[in-house]
Amino acid sequence: MSSELIQTIDEILQRADIPERHTYFQIEKFIIGKEVTAQAQLWQIVRELKARRETVDSFTQQLEDAGDNLELFDIQIERQQKLLNEEKHLGNDANPLNIKEIEINIRKLIREKERLIQSIKKVQDKVKFSLEEASFLILAFNRIEQIEKLKALDDKEAQTEYWNEKLLEEFNLRILLRNPLDSELIRTIMALNNEAPVKKHVSSMLEQVQKSMLEQNQLKLNQNRPEIKVEAKVKGVSGQNGNR
Predict the structure, then answer these.
(1) By three-state DSSP, how is residue 198 classified?
(2) How far, in Å, CA of 106 to CA of 204, rounded?
(3) Taking a C-beta distance cutoff of 8 angstroms, is the pair 8, 118 a contact?
(4) pTM value?
(5) What is the model's pLDDT at position 128?
């Protein structure tokens, strides 16, 4: 790869600041915003914060290990440098092959150390990006809690509201998109308590469907019923043209 091309790539990379994390728009709209209730949004934020904390802890351990490995590289390089100096001090008795081998080992160790330093920089960036996401999540959490305080995951009222809204959204989407209503969705909705608005809505719809089916069946039954013809017998007047 030409040096000119490398220079062009570096110039573009310096101009573009694209962090390797979710955008704040993604977090707001697709991670938090997709949840149908305030409690569900708070629960999702808690899950995301837990994941970020675990990520930061893992990366921190990697950085600690990398720091130790850097020190080990310095020790190995220093040892090789001592061997090289000892070999050179031998003067005419020095073995050229030994000197060349030691110099190669030193160059390899330096390159490995540089690669490790680059890896450390990437991990540090990941920690930074994870903390940026966590900061945004905390702001969102505090904003939502000003409206509604966090409740336990098993809070009955919160769960009732969540499942009513979630199933109602799914039901309405299927209706609007004209997708079939699978039996599992209907059974799930009907498992809610009788006061759930979505259950009342679906129950009313099912009653209407049942009523419509009964009317259609009755109509077909009437259409297929054989027609009964009644012949009227008209008695003529006896002796109309004759004697009585």
Answers:
(1) helix
(2) 81
(3) no
(4) 0.80
(5) 97
